[in-house]
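User: C-alpha cells for this one?
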Amino acid sequence: MIPISLSLQNFLSYGENVPRLDFSGFHVACISGRNGHGKSALLDAITWALWGEARKAGSERRPNDGLLRIGATEMQVDFEFHLEEDRYRVSRSYRKTGKSATSRLELQIFSPETGGYKTLSEEGAIRK
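Assistant:
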C-alpha cells in the first residue's frame, strides 16, 4: 500500500478546515514535532479509516468517542492509497447525537475512464 493523501476533520487534535496531507511529493518522510502536536494522530487516522479502530482506553465502551475532537459532534477521515495497480479511497465518518451515534464507511476505487471514484461498498454491508 502506498499512501496518496489523508484528510481529517475533528479527529483527535485536528479540527475543522485541516489542509489535506499530500504524500505524492515524497518517498520517505520523517514526522517530527513536540509532544502532543498530533504526530501519532495521523497514523491513528489511517488506522481508524481502514479498520475502524485506533487507540482506545480500556474503559471506553465506544472507542470512537475517544477519537472525536473535544467539543465536536462528528468526525471524518478520508484516506487515498495505491494498492498494486489500483487507486482506492476509504472514507469513514462518525456522528454523535445525544446518547446515540452513527458511523459510515465507504470504500471506493478510482476509475481512469471517468476520472472519478466508483463506490465498491454497499450501504450497510460494511460495519464498524
